[in-house]
Amino acid sequence: MRKTIRSPRRLRGSIEAPGDKSISHRAAILNAIAQGEAAVENFQGGADCLATLRCLMALGVKIDWDGQGTLRVHGGGRFGLKESADVLNAGNSGTTMRLLAGLLAGQPFFSVLTGDASLRSRPMERVVEPLRTMGARIQGRAGGTRPPLVIEGGSLRGIRYRLPVASAQVKSALSLAALYGEGETVLDEPAPSRDHTERMLRAMGAEVRVDQGDGLRISPSQRELTPLSLRVPGDISAAAFWMVAAAAHPDAEIRLTGVGVNPSRSGIIDALAGMGASIALEEERTWGCEPVADIVVRSSSLRGTVIEGSLIPRLIDEIPVLAVAACLAGGETVIRQAGELRLKESDRIRTTVLELQRLGAGIQELPDGMVIQGVGRLKGGVCGSHGDHRLAMTLAVAGLLAQGETVVRGAEASSISYPAFWHHLEELSSD
Ligand code: S3P
Q: 48, 52, 167: which to mutate for ligand 1, most atoms within 8 A of CB?
């Protein structure tokens, strides 16, 4: 599907971002192994989270979902999952595959996890190796480094493990396995990644401790997890598209309501504020175990910045759209220590640079990031998503800020995480 975008004279309005993708996956998976029923409001209905639901249902979990409104998960307890009669398909979703690999490693049955062509090319050794150290029996292509993964679940033991890169998917996979391990598991990472799993597990009664300097400690559950009903906060990674659009457009004011502002995810707010964006957090409140706010962003004069270090895991998924802000900013922006971007749904360093160059950006690849010279205004052109949802939406935002017409090929990829994206784009644009 192709979408054609023109820069509107004004960007105005109030948007409720879709439910957070990371929290939605976790709400479904953790409630599936709790004992009893949970109601999850504002569950994100994009293709990635639906892949998680389908896998859980194939594992015997009873789930009611009408496509909108409230998801109901009927958890069958720690050992309530059943062997699936078929291969489990995670589609495009790395979170589904990696978290389920951790969970299934501790189940007394056989599972096979696969995904689409993009997911089958993504690295799995980051979960497979530590899970094998815990005693898991996992095979896969290329020595277990690529899907499909074949898991003969069974008994596990706790480990002490330092993650080589900050990754919430790995941390969460190992935390799930740790619930089934003998003895404590201690996890430590080079910089803090998103902590939704820890927050949720603690709220469900699991023994989870975060020790300053000594990482995350998880003890195997002696008792069943309590179901956790919650309202999923709006996804800051989805809201980020409108934050950048509003900050960089000459006549904009956008309110994003009920957005999750967990500090392990809110790097985009810090980065844009550091670039001079006008961003205000209003009505700060808590939904379940997560902080939420309304975010108001207005037209601003942006300047270049440096994005690196512990900020990277706090905004990893927002870097492509942040690159658009950098194109419109005065001066140079450098993004480095972000080599993880090459291992996402596409090689996001290569694809972001290539596609923004088509729109007149002064952007170059670095081995672990990119360097951008602000050009004031982008030029409309034809560009493509490489089947990557975040790239499709990033290019749409570039189109909102470019002179002339922009055509985004492969625009349908946005449905992975934000089915209402194009509808919201129309709602916010006015002439
Ligand atoms: C996610 C963690 C991040 C992020 C991904 C979702 C999660 O990946 O990029 O989109 O839900 O845990 P890594 O864990 O690989 O850093």
A: 167
Number of structural domains the chain divides into: 2
Residue 91 lies in a domain: yes
Tokens found for residue 177: 């396995």
For the chain, percent helix, then strand, then coil, each to nearest 5?
A: 35, 30, 35
Substitution candidate for ligand 1 out of 26, 99, 126, 193 with most atoms within 8 A of CB? 193
The answer to whether position 228 is within a domain reads no
Of the chain, the end-to-end C-alpha distance in Å amounts to 25
The tokens describing 100, both together, are: 């389920």
Three-state DSSP class for residue 292 = strand
Write down which residue in 183, 218, 253 finishes a domain: 218
Is 317 one of the annotated active-site residues of the chain?
A: yes
Q: How far apart are CA 277 and CA 295, in angstroms?
A: 12
Tokens representing 390? 């975040």
At residue 78, the pLDDT reads 95
Q: What is the pLDDT averaged over residues 330-342?
A: 98
- CATH number of the domain within which 60 lies: 3.65.10.10
Q: Is pLDDT at 127 greater than 80 in this prediction? A: yes
Distance between CA atoms of 1 and 283, rounded to whole angstroms? Answer: 38
* Cβ < 6 A, ligand 1 pocket: 22, 95, 167-169, 172, 193-194, 316-317, 340
Q: Do 372 and 245 fall within a single domain?
A: yes
Residue type at 399 in one-letter notation: G
Residue 376 lies in a domain: yes
Q: Is residue 397 one of the residues assigned to a domain?
A: yes
In this model, does residue 18 exceed pLDDT 80?
yes
Count, residues in the chain: 431
Alpha-carbon gap, residue 80 to 62, rounded angstroms: 11
Do residues 7 and 71 both lie within one domain?
A: no
Predicted confidence at residue 431, as pLDDT, reads 81
Q: Are 127 and 60 in a shared domain? A: yes
CA 99/CA 324 separation, integer angstroms: 31
Domain that holds residue 320: 2-19+234-429
**How far are the Cα atoms of 137, 226, 389, 424 from residue 361, in angstroms, in the given order?**
48, 51, 20, 25
Task: Note the pLDDT tens digit of each residue in 142-194.
Answer: 999 999 999 999 999 999 999 999 999 999 999 999 999 999 999 999 999 99
Residues 398, 403, 406, CA angle at the centre, nearest 5°?
55
User: Measured between alpha carbons, how far is residue 176 from residues 127, 244, 271 in Å?
Assistant: 12, 35, 32
